[in-house]
Write a structure and sequence with these properties.
single chain, mainly alpha, 4 helices, globular
C-alpha cells in the first residue's frame, strides 16, 4: 500500500554518492513504525532493525517534506475502509 509512495520518494532523492541504502526500505519503514508504536528512544531500537542513523534519516526527511503525512493518510483510509 505505501510502497509506491516510498519508491517514488526514493527515486526523487537519489544518493549524492550514488550508492544505495544498506537497508531494504521495508526494514526502514518497519523500524519507523516500531519506534512510533513503542515510543522507545531512537538509540534503543532493537539490534535486528536498521541502525538509528539510517532510520532517523528517513524519518526526518519524510517528516520535513510531508511524505509521512501521505503515508499516514493512506493507512488511515485503509483502516477506515476495513471498518465498514
Amino acid at each position: 500500500m505505501i510502497e509506491p509512495v516510498v519508491t517514488a520518494w526514493k527515486d526523487r532523492h537519489r544518493s549524492v554518492s550514488g550508492h544505495q541504502s544498506a537497508y531494504a526500505m521495508r526494514e526502514i519503514v518497519n523500524s519507523i513504525f516500531y519506534q512510533g508504536r513503542t515510543g522507545c528512544q531512537w538509540a534503543y531500537l532493537p539490534h535486528d532493525l536498521p541502525q538509528k542513523s539510517a532510520t532517523y534519516y528517513y524519518f526526518a526527511a519524510w517528516r520535513d517534506d510531508g511524505t509521512d503525512q501521505v503515508i499516514h493518510e493512506l493507512l488511515r483510509c485503509q483502516v477506515r475502509e476495513k471498518a465498514r
